Amino acid sequence: MQNKIEFNGLLLIDKHSDITSFSVISRLRALTGIKKIGHCGTLDPFATGILPVLFGRYTKLAQYLEATDKTYHVEFVLGTATDTQDKTGQIIDSIDPADLQQRIESGELDQTLREIVISDLTGEIEQIPPMYSAIKIAGKPLYKYARDGQDITRKARTIRIYQAELSKIILQDGQWICAATISCSKGTYIRTWIDDLGRKAKCFAYAKSLSRQKCGNLELGQNSVTLAELFQKKEEFASDQSKMRNEIEQKYFYPIEKALSDFPQYYLNLAEAKKVVHGQNLKLNNLYEIGSTSLIQLLYNDKLLAIVSLNESNQVQYQQVLADKV
Question: Catalytic one among 14, 44, 86, 196?
Answer without folding.
Answer: 44
